[in-house]
Structures are given as structure tokens and as C-alpha cells.
């Protein structure tokens, strides 16, 4: 059981990021390919504030969140009226810059040597109980984010956000400053990615730049697309199928011959790629299908005129 | 009262509208012209989706020529584009609700009025707008604009793709809305005959310039023919 605490915490982190990406991509249509850039920024800022500036974890997390949000607001202001390809490239480039900084600014980040250790924000006396309680916190946050994302599509604000992605020129003539809404929405969701990254710092405890590579972004995207981008539960099931299947089931329970174990991460990415292709080809709306209300045309009665 | 004073606009370097001037009061004001005459360009310019390259426009005396579309909308402008005029992924209910974001009257009251005007929509209420027939989608688009409680309603070929029966229905609805609410309606149309029948006045555009602004009843076939000639 103890061996499961770490992968389950990672799973909860991926579900959180998936729910946030669902908000950005599934609801607002923002093609954020720099997820790890924002979570990584939050992660490193939290760690640096805790370890080097000796600030309490909570304060560090708040500062990391706010800074990540401000950075995202500036980036969003620059790119969010460009087309999808440009947003994709710019967010990917942003994540690369964050990774690069983590290696070059080594007096702050420890560079490739790493930065450690980030303590858990609370201590119940017993290590096992503490990590378990922290896992509980992460699961609660994941559940809250998923519920919020489900709820937001039903309130006027969510409707506005979806309308912007659905038909932006029309949305612009509807009495709301669409660009500003988009930037704020992006900044807030990215700030929360920073929060999640900061929480992840305490899971990882020892930070190395490798954590900021695009793998995280890909896993979150794969999870979202597997589950279906219009369904927030899709992010949850997608995360179960990716991180859950590989990092938990395969790593913990499957006997992998020693000579193959080094290949496992590559095999994992290959399998993700294959599954992703199959999903896009055969279930473009995701394994769960399209979550939107949509009756078949003509299914409603009495509409003939 | 909405006024355009010698406005010019276009797309990037290309100027499509040249020195267009007219005023719209509480009336149905028809915007006519051949394909490519610049009707849609005029509507987009008024809706603030295209910048002015010359001239000015005022709503009740306030210069609105540099406003963002959402600001003009909040001040009473509602725009129904010729194409892509609904939110296809949103349901009919959501399309209408999103029009109701602005305006002061209770939303339920406005919704009831729209459903009165377009009773066919009630059976489609939870269906996504992208799956509606062309005519139903037009009703949603016009209904959404009405939810905004506009002072100035811009309709760009709302009857495009509708069967003649629907065209007549929609035109009488537009006329009814205009007289009941005393608002200004700019109605861009291809079909001059039916449009002139409900319009108070008409503007004929020819190659982006004003060919004529006249009482609708005084626009005869010869004038139309001249106005539509390229
Ligand atoms: N996005 C655009 N970029 C460049 N030129 C454009 C664009 N849209 C329209 N035009 C040009 O502007 C002119 C006027 O087009 P507009 O759409 O305003 O005509 P219209 O009167 O609405 O025609 P229709 O009756 O076919 O709808 C045309 O010559 C057209 O080629
Ligand atoms: Mg047109």
C-alpha cells in the first residue's frame, strides 16, 4: 500500500491538471501545449521560496500561484487573439523557456543537480500518515476541480466562455469583452496549474529539470483526449488509463524482465501514441463520447411547420 | 437616431465602402444592392467589427466610431451576421440566454416574448443550434438579437435560405417588432421587392457607394434596375 501513495498522488496531480486543461481547451478552446510550463513554474517557485527563502509552504504556494497567473496573463495578452497553431507553438515555447531557466539559473534552481528537499506542508508525526493525509488533500482538490469544471459549463460565465470558442466574431458583438474574458480565464486556470505544480513539489520532494519536460503536458493531453475533451470526467478516466495503468498497475504489479525495464517509459509513450491515434480515428469525441446535450435532429416532436 | 457620416471602410488595404452617409430613426431601413455591393461590409462596419477608414458614426449624438463591438452592443446595438450567426455547439436555450446577458428587463420576460414570436423553437429548446434547419437557425439568430433588447437591430440577410412562406413570416415579425418597440432596424436584403414592402426607407448600395436613399414606397423598378447595375 505504501508504495502506492506516490503514484496515486501523481495520478491526483494529473487529474487536477486534466480538469484545468479541460477548462482551457474543452470549454474555452485554448490550445495550451505548455501545461508543464505553468505547473513547473509554480513547482519551482514554491520550492525556491520554501527552501531558499525559508518561507512557509502556504505563503510560498500563494506567491507561486499569483506569479504564475501574472506570467500567464502577460503571455495570454500577447497570444490569445492569434489562431490555434500560434497559441500551440507559443505555449510550447513558453514551457521550453521555463525548462531552460530551470537548468541555467542553477544558483536558484540547483540546475541539473536538483533542488531539494521540499517538505510536506504539515507533519502528523508519522511519515506514512503524513503522506497519506497529503494524498487525501490532493484527491479532495482533484474532486473539487472536476466538480467545478462540470458546474461551470452550466452557469452564465461558462456559457460565455464556450460561446467565445464556438463563434468568437459573434461573441464579440454580444456586449462582453471577449478578449479580456479569455485572458482572465487563461490566467486564472494557468495560475491554478501553478498551484497544482506547487503541491506537486511536495510530492516530488526533490526537483530536477527533467520534471519540466513535455512528458507531463503530453500525458495530460492524452488523458483529456482519451476521455473526451468536452467531458471533464474524460480527464479523470483518461488519467486512470494512462498514469493509472502504467505508473500504478504496470510498475507495481507486472513483472517486467530486468532488461526491458529501462524500455518501459518509451514503450509507454509508444502505447499512448498508438491509443491516441486509434481514439482520434475511431472515437474522435473521446472514449466517453460527446458530453454535450445533443438530440438527434428530428428527435423532438411537434417541430414541423 | 443612428447616423453615418461619409463612412469608408474595407478589409486591410482594400476599401470597399466609400463615403456612405445616411440616418436611421425608428423605422425599418432597407439596405439593398447587388451581390458584392457592400451590404455585409456596411453591417460589419456598423457593428464595429471592421474599423472605419474615414467618416464618423453616432448613436443619439454619441460618437461610436471607435468603440469596440461589445461596448456598442451594451449601448443597444444587436447584430445578426449573414453567416455563422448562431453558436452551433450551444443549445437553442443557451444561444438565447447568451443574448440576454445584457439588457435590464427580466430575462424570463424577454425569453417569453421571443418564444411567442418563434413558437417553433420551443420543440428545439435543448437541441444544439448546429443541428437546426436553416430556417430554425435564422429564428434563433434573430431571437438571440432580440434578447439583447436592442435600440438598433442589424439584420444581414435574415431570410437567406428560407422558403417563401418563412420569408413572409419573418418579415412580418420584423415589422411587428419594429413598430411595437419603436426601434431602428437595418435590414440588408437581396430580395428588394418583399423588403421594400415592409421598409420605411431604403438605401441602395452600388459598388460600395450610395446610389440612393429614398422612401421605400417611392423606389420603383426602374430605379432598382439602375441601382443594381454594375
Ligand atoms: N473578408 C474580406 N476580405 C476582402 N474582401 C472582402 C471580404 N469580404 C468581402 N469582401 C469584398 O467586399 C465587397 C463587398 O462584399 P460584401 O460581402 O459586403 O457584399 P454584399 O453586398 O453583402 O454581397 P452579398 O449580397 O453577396 O452578401 C466584395 O467585392 C467582396 O469581394
Ligand atoms: Mg452580404
Q: Given this structure, which CATH class of chain A is correct?
A: Mainly Alpha
Cα distance, first to last residue of chain A? 64 Å
The quaternary state of the protein chains shown equals heterodimer
Q: Helix fraction of chain A?
A: over 70%
CATH class of chain B: Alpha Beta
At CATH's second level, what is the architecture of chain B? 3-Layer(aba) Sandwich
Q: Give the percentage of residues in beta strands of chain B.
A: 25-35%
Gap between N and C termini of chain B: 31 Å
**CATH superfamily annotation of chain B:** P-loop containing nucleotide triphosphate hydrolases
Polypeptide structure, described:
The complex is a heterodimer of chains A (305) and B (230). Chain A has 305 residues and is mainly α. Chain A has one domain (2-304): ABC transporter involved in vitamin B12 uptake, BtuC. Chain A has 13 helices and no strands. Chain A has helices at residues 2-27, 35-51, 57-79, 84-104, 106-109, 127-152, 156-166, 168-172, 178-204, 215-227, 232-253, 258-261, 264-282. In chain A, helix 3 (57-79) runs antiparallel to helix 9 (178-204). The radius of gyration of chain A is 20 Å and the shape is globular. The N and C termini of chain A lie far apart (64 Å). The model of chain A is unreliable at 292-305 (pLDDT under 50). With 230 residues, chain B is of the alpha/beta class. Chain B has one domain: Rossmann fold. Chain B has eight helices and ten strands. Chain B has helices spanning 39-46, 69-74, 92-99, 107-117, 134-147, 164-181, 192-198, 221-228; strands spanning 2-11, 14-24, 28-32, 52-59, 62-63, 77-80, 152-156, 184-188, 201-206, 209-215. A six-stranded mixed β-sheet of chain B has the order 6-7-8-3-9-10, with helices on both faces. A four-stranded antiparallel β-sheet of chain B has the order 2-1-4-5, covered by helices on one side. In chain B, a hairpin with a 2-residue loop joins strand 9 (201-206) and strand 10. In chain B, helix 3 (92-99) runs parallel beside helix 5 (134-147) and helix 4 runs antiparallel to helix 5 (134-147). Chain B is globular. The model of chain B has no long low-confidence stretch (mean pLDDT 92). Chains A and B meet through helix 7 and helix 8 of A and helix 2, strand 6 and helix 3 of B. The complex binds adenosine-5'-triphosphate and magnesium ion. Residues 11, 14, 16, 33, 35-41, 82, 190 of chain B line the site of adenosine-5'-triphosphate (ATP).
Amino acid at each position: 500500500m505504501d508504495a502506492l501513495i506516490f503514484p496515486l498522488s501523481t495520478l491526483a496531480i494529473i487529474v487536477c491538471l486534466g480538469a484545468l486543461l479541460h477548462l482551457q481547451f474543452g470549454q474555452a478552446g485554448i490550445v495550451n501545449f505548455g501545461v508543464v510550463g505553468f505547473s513547473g513554474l509554480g513547482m519551482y517557485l514554491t520550492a525556491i521560496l520554501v527552501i531558499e527563502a525559508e518561507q512557509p509552504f502556504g505563503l510560498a504556494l500563494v506567491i507561486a500561484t499569483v506569479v504564475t497567473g501574472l506570467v500567464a496573463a502577460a503571455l495570454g495578452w500577447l497570444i490569445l487573439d492569434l489562431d490555434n497553431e500560434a497559441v500551440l507553438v507559443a505555449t510550447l515555447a513558453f514551457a521550453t523557456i521555463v525548462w531552460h531557466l530551470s537548468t541555467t539559473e542553477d544558483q536558484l534552481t540547483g540546475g541539473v543537480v536538483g533542488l531539494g528537499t521540499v517538505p510536506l506542508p504539515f507533519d502528523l508525526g508519522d511519515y506514512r500518515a503524513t503522506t497519506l493525509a497529503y494524498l487525501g488533500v490532493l484527491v479532495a482538490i482533484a474532486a473539487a476541480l472536476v466538480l467545478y469544471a462540470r458546474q461551470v459549463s452550466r452557469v452564465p460565465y461558462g456559457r460565455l466562455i464556450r460561446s467565445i470558442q464556438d463563434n468568437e466574431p459573434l461573441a464579440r458583438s454580444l456586449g462582453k469583452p471577449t478578449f479580456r474574458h479569455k485572458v482572465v480565464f487563461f490566467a486564472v486556470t494557468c495560475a491554478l496549474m501553478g498551484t497544482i505544480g506547487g503541491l506537486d513539489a511536495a510530492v516530488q520532494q526533490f526537483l530536477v529539470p527533467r520534471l519540466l519536460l513535455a512528458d507531463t503536458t503530453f500525458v495530460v493531453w492524452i488523458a483529456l483526449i482519451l476521455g473526451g475533451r468536452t467531458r471533464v470526467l474524460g480527464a479523470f478516466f483518461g488519467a486512470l488509463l494512462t498514469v493509472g495503468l502504467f505508473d500504478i498497475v504496470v510498475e507495481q504489479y507486472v513483472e517486467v524482465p530486468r532488461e526491458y525495464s529501462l524500455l518501459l517509459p518509451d514503450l509507454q509513450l509508444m502505447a499512448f501514441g498508438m491509443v491516441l491515434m486509434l481514439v482520434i480515428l475511431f472515437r474522435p469525441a473521446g472514449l466517453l463520447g460527446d458530453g454535450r446535450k445533443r438530440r438527434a435532429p428530428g428527435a423532438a416532436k411537434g417541430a414541423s411547420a | 437616431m443612428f447616423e453615418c457620416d461619409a463612412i469608408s471602410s474595407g478589409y486591410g488595404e482594400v476599401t470597399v465602402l466609400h463615403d456612405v452617409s445616411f440616418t436611421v430613426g425608428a423605422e425599418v431601413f432597407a439596405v439593398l444592392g447587388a451581390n458584392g455591393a457592400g451590404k455585409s461590409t456596411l453591417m460589419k462596419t456598423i457593428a464595429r467589427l471592421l474599423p472605419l477608414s474615414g467618416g464618423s458614426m453616432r448613436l443619439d449624438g454619441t460618437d461610436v466610431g471607435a468603440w469596440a463591438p461589445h461596448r456598442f452592443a451594451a449601448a443597444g446595438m444587436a447584430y445578426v451576421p449573414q453567416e455563422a450567426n448562431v453558436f452551433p455547439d450551444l443549445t437553442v436555450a443557451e444561444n438565447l440566454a447568451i443574448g440576454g446577458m445584457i439588457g435590464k428587463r427580466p430575462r424570463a420576460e424577454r425569453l417569453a416574448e421571443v418564444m411567442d414570436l418563434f413558437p417553433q423553437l420551443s420543440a428545439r429548446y435543448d437541441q444544439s443550434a448546429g443541428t437546426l434547419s436553416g430556417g430554425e437557425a435564422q429564428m434563433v439568430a434573430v431571437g438571440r438579437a432580440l434578447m439583447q433588447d436592442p435600440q438598433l437591430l442589424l439584420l444581414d440577410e435574415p431570410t437567406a435560405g428560407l422558403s417563401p412562406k418563412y420569408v413572409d413570416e419573418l418579415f412580418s415579425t420584423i415589422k411587428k417588432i419594429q413598430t411595437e418597440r419603436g426601434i431602428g432596424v437595418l435590414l440588408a436584403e437581396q430580395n428588394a421587392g418583399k423588403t421594400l414592402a415592409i421598409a420605411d426607407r431604403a438605401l441602395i448600395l452600388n459598388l460600395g457607394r450610395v446610389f440612393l436613399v429614398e422612401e421605400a414606397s417611392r423606389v420603383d423598378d426602374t430605379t432598382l434596375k439602375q441601382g443594381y447595375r454594375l
